[in-house]
Amino acid sequence: MEEYILSEIRPSDRRSIRKMEAMFEKEGIERDKNLDYTVGLYDEEYNLLATGSCFGKTLRCMAVDSNYQGKGLLNLVVTHLVEHQYNRGNLDLFLYTKCDSAKFFEDLNFHEIARVQDKLVFMENRREGFSKYSDNLAMKKVKAEKVAAAVVNANPFTLGHQYLLEKISEENDIVHIFVVSEDASLVPFSARYDLVKKGTAHLDNLIYHNTGEYLISTATFPSYFLKDEELVIESHARLDIEIFKKIAESLGVTRRYVGEEPFSKVTNIYNRVMKKELGECGIECVVIPRKENENGAISASKVRSLIHDGRIEQIRDSVPQTTYDFFVSTEEGMRVVDRIRNSSDYVHY
C-alpha cells in the first residue's frame, strides 16, 4: 500500500511552489492570487501528487496530477483542508468548482447553493446554510407594491451612495439594502454598516441586511480555472445574480438598483451582465447616474485616494457629515485612516 505525506507548502518553499505551478500548468489551471494556506500531498520520494489551498472560509486551487487521478488523493487533500479550517475556527466553508466536479464534492458533504450553467457551482458544507439565511431574510419581508433592493460595499459611505439610496427610497415603497459583510475592504464591515445606517437615517422605508457569505465579492472569487479576466468577472456576476434571484424571491423584490460606474472595470461588467440577466427573469435593473461635485463623479475610490494622500479635509464635499466625523473624531476611524494611508491597494480596478 502506498504511503502519502501531507505537508504545508509555505510561500518561502520555492522548490515546492515550482512543483505546484508545474502541476497547475500541466492541468491547465492558474494559481490563485488569494491564498492563505496551501498543502501538498507527496509520495515517499517527495513527488508532488496533489495540492489544495484555503483563503478565508473558502477551499480553492485543488488539483491532482493527471497521472494519479482516480486514486482518492483529492479526497485526502480536501479532508485535510476541512480539518485545518475547523482548527482555525472556520466551521462554515465554501468552495467553487466546475460543474463536472460538483458530484465529487457532494460526496464529501458539500451542498450546492447556485450554479452558472456549464461553468461554475458554488457550494457550502452546511446542508441548510443558505436556506436558513433566506428564511431569516423572509422574516423581514414587507408586502408592498414596489419593493426594491440594492447592494452596497460603502468603502466608505459617500454622498454618492446616499444619493443612490435616496433615489431608490423615493421611487419605491420598501427598499432592502444589503451591505457587503465580507471584511475585504479597508473600512471594516461593522463601520461600513453603521455609516450606511447613519447616512440614511432620514429615510423611513429602508430595511438593512448583511450579505453573509452569499452575495459574494470579487475578493473571494477564485479565478484559477477561468483564464480570461473578463470571463472571470462575467461568470462571477452571473453566479451572484443566481443567488440574488433566490433572495429577491424571499423578499418579493422586483427591482434592483445599481449606481452607474465610470471608474471600476469590475462593476461596469457587473452592471452590464446584471441588466441583461435580471431582465430575463422579470426583475427590473435600474442604473442611476453618478452624483457629481465640482471635481466630477463622486466615488469611494476618490475618497480613499484623498485620505491616502493626507488630504482628508478635502473629502468633506464627497461624504455625509457622519462619515467625515467617523474618520476625524473616532478612534476606529483614525485607525482606518492609518490603514488607508499605509496601503498600496487603496484604489480598486
From TrEMBL:
EC numbers on record: 6.2.1.22
Function as written in the Swiss-Prot or TrEMBL entry: Acetylation of prosthetic group (2-(5''-phosphoribosyl)-3'-dephosphocoenzyme-A) of the gamma subunit of citrate lyase.
Domain N-acetyltransferase: from-to ranges: 1-128
The UniProt record lists the keyword NAD: no
One MF term in the entry's GO annotations: ATP binding
Reactions that this protein is recorded to catalyse: holo-[citrate lyase ACP] + acetate + ATP = acetyl-[citrate lyase ACP] + AMP + diphosphate
Protein name per its UniProtKB record: [Citrate [pro-3S]-lyase] ligase
Key words of the record: ATP-binding, Ligase, Lyase, Nucleotide-binding
Keyword flag Lyase: yes
